[in-house]
Amino acid sequence: MTEPSTARHVDVLIVGAGLSGIGAACHLQRESPGRTYAVLEAREAIGGTWDLFRYPGVRSDSDMFTLGYSFRPWTDPKAIADGASIREYVQDTAREYGVDRHIRFGTRVVAASWSTEDSRWTVTAERTGTGETETWTCSWLSVCSGYYRYDEGHRPRFPGEERFGGRVVHPQHWPDDLDWAGKRVVVIGSGATAVTLVPSLAEQAAHVTMLQRTPTYVVSLPGRDALAEKLRRRLPDRVVYPVVRWKNVLVSMASFQLSRRRPELMRKVLAKAAAKELPGSVDVGTHFNPPYDPWDQRLCVVPDGDLFRVLREGRASIVTDRIAGFDETGIALESGEHLDADVVVTATGLNLLPIGGMRLTVDGEDVDLSRTVSYKGFMVSGVPNFAMTIGYTNASWTLKADLVARYVCRLLDHLDRNGYAAATPLAPADGGTAPFIGLSSGYVQRSLAALPKQGSRAPWKLYQNYVRDVLLMRRGPLEDEGIRFTRPVDERATAGVGEVAA
């Protein structure tokens, strides 16, 4: 394939300037210097999720010692940080490493085509302001666009909404002109967004009701890390950061393993902790006792128990019921109760969109992600020189994103050292597969069919285990049964050498 002369070529093209994309670019500069790269970002700002979401109280549900980058210590006293602080952290990191000079904003990738003959990707992007297209070529393509749709959240329609006399908003597109001071607010949902919104809105609202169809496990964690604060009085951040990071990783892993091995015990521990924080008027068995086991869905973290606090103070309440429909003054429930409302917030979840919705082709054949198998959780079978960054479901996103970015650097250097042109993952010969994400959350179940599968064993299985992945991705071999390395086509033809299988 002969590329257009107007195509811009870089060694590595990164899609997305959020937490993962900025981290990938920084790792590339730190660990595989000398390579040319560019970052294409559909929006006009750095930050991804943390720039898009602007609803009241938006924050991480992971501590910043693990959500932060491994190479740049988080120095703010807050361990559970608000969205603005995280956005500033990502932007400052991009400026500090000069990554901001490599970003092309307002550029949405719509298609990527791999040519084995040329050993390169041809990437088609649209300028979001004008609709004009531009072409890029690269030797390696890293997609760091997350896995959900930025332009549209999951928004079920309820009977009678058109009759409601108040305002209905979705957190993913929070309006600047919304005034909820002194008003009755109903937040529909029970996930991370809902438990964040309720205490934040309760600061000004007359009353906030969290209306949930199904309870969620909610756990209170300190907003500041006691060990970090103690160590910071004596040691520099560069020493404190990795110590606290590993402490939090191990505590999180222990909690997850206990949940998987002794789910009933963990259920009792979480229920007992919630009961201590809640007023007697709130029934833990009804409102904080999900029908599923802990970590079948992600736990919701509330810093310093802020959700429990507003429930104790009577500024918020929780209702577990189903919606029969809207009317002029609020929401009618299937139980016959009615929730009066001036504002309704539909914290009803996300829509997944793997690899930003771009079309992938390999040598002219469309790639159906649902028919591929993930390799080490970041590449997919049959697609050469391609990485897809998706973080952990049971720990901080960045822990996995960091590992992926560093592994890509190792792989690029390995290709160069051995004269290889491409690394192509292979599907497992035994054919045993499972869903890519092992959560029962609605947003996951709605979109599992569009995601790759995972295998039943390494290197295709996702163990969701950071320590195991550190050993696999930092120290493990680059050549194994799950990947094939090939030399340039012209070199193979001249030498009469076929594919080199690991």
From TrEMBL:
Cofactor(s) named in the record: FAD
Alphabetical keyword list: FAD, Flavoprotein, Monooxygenase, NADP, Oxidoreductase
Keyword Oxidoreductase (UniProt): yes
Coiled-coil ranges per UniProt: none
GO MF annotation: an example: NADP binding
Top-level taxon: Bacteria
Entry keyword annotation includes Oxidoreductase: yes
Pfam families: FMO-like (PF00743), NAD_binding_8 (PF13450)
InterPro entries (UniProt xref): FAD-binding_MO (IPR051820), FAD/NAD-bd_sf (IPR036188), Flavin_mOase-like (IPR020946)
Family: Belongs to the FAD-binding monooxygenase family.
The protein's name: Predicted flavoprotein CzcO associated with the cation diffusion facilitator CzcD
Organism annotation: Geodermatophilus saharensis
